[in-house]
Design a protein that fits this description.
The chain has 9 helices and 6 strands. Helix 3 (70-80) packs parallel to helix 4 (97-105). With 236 residues, the chain is of the alpha/beta class. Strands 3-2-4-1-5-6 form a 6-stranded parallel β-sheet, with helices on both faces. Strand 2, helix 2 and strand 3 (61-65) form a beta-alpha-beta unit. The longest helix is centred in the middle third of the chain and has 20 residues, at 117-136.
């Protein structure tokens, strides 16, 4: 059964595409993965994927798709269901139809969050829509993923405490550090799991392993929402 993971955030520059490509490439070492790039015109995932195909001969089952609009995204998710182990959706930095479709199709929505007040405010602004999506899609889990995290700073610790108090959203256990390996790997069409940065490799391996166990040990099945209901939510 295909598992769908969406990366959603209102604020730009939080590392959605970096996390999406690293997760897609790492999972594709042992599973079939469809990476869906909805973040036009930047299309960071698409540039990363093209670099990967042009520069390397990697034995993996990773395909990229680029739907033109949220209706095309919905049709694509329906078409790819049961063709891949995972579908990973990189949404744009706004709460548009792409993000809304992703939330109603996904098993897991990850909210990338660095330890800054601005990003906490952006997630707080999303809470009404996130709550509405959870009510409609009973199979959905929404979790914060701490990214570009500086664990030894006072501000990071304070913002984690604030997030737990104010957002009341569960977190992924693995935090992703603020490391140059992530930007370097992105530019080269690689994942950090394919670099020499041991700490970054451990982080992404741990994250992907946690997600695999979380999704496939869950008793929840994929939602069976009618397309009309999903489109109605997407148009709001």
């Amino acid at each position: 059964m295909t598992k769908i993971i969406g990366f959603v955030q209102l604020k730009g520059g939080v590392g959605r595409s970096t996390l999406a490509t690293n997760l897609a490439g790492t999972l594709a070492e042992s599973a079939t993965v469809a990476l869906i790039d909805c973040d036009a015109p930047q299309n960071t995932c698409s540039h990363w994927y093209q670099q990967r195909k042009d520069l390397y001969d990697i034995d993996e089952q990773l395909d990229l798709y680029q739907p033109a609009n949220y209706r095309a995204l919905l049709k694509l998710c329906n078409k790819l269901d049961n063709q891949y182990d995972y579908i990973i959706i990189d949404c744009p930095p706004r709460l548009d139809g792409f993000s809304r479709v992703a939330m109603l199709k996904a098993n897991l929505v990850l909210l990338p969050l660095a330890a800054s007040a601005a990003e906490l405010w952006s997630v707080e602004a999303m809470l009404p829509m996130l709550n509405e999506a959870e009510k409609i899609n009973s199979q959905l889990d929404i979790r914060i993923i701490w990214n570009r995290f500086r664990s030894n700073t006072r501000s990071a610790k304070n913002n984690v405490a604030s997030a737990k108090k104010d957002l009341k959203l569960p977190e992924m256990r693995q935090k992703i550090g603020f490391r140059v390996a992530y930007s370097d790997a992105m530019a080269e069409g690689l994942t950090v799991h394919e670099t020499n940065d041991r700490n970054a490799r451990v982080e992404i391996w741990s994250l992907s392993s946690n997600i695999e166990r979380f999704l496939f040990k869950s008793n929840k099945s994929n939602n069976k929402l009618a397309d009309d209901k999903i489109l109605q939510f997407a148009k709001k």
